[in-house]
Amino acid sequence: MFPVCHIEDLPVGASVRIRIDDTTPAIAVFHTEDGLYAVDDTCSHQDASLSEGWVEGCFVECPLHAALFDLRTGAPTCLPARRPVRTHEVGVLDGTVHVRPAVREGAVA
Known about the structure:
three-stranded antiparallel β-sheet; metal-binding; Rieske_2Fe-2S_sf; iron-sulfur; oxidoreductase
């Protein structure tokens, strides 16, 4: 798992965009009232950063065309997005938020 930030630096309603390395797509980490969630940062409809979107409950709205994604599953809930975004494991260890990136399809583990 990769460290993201201290939990107190990511208040409820906030998000942060992280880059782990040049081969891993950027990840958006969200702190909602229901907990922490991490998804690929790029909207599956068009090249927009979901970490810059609007969070309500367990959903994030893309800032470009208002596609809505369920942060729990990555599934789009309305058009124009049709494909889900990948979700990632996220947790807190010793007060630090950590993310374990999901393995990309076709990647060698």
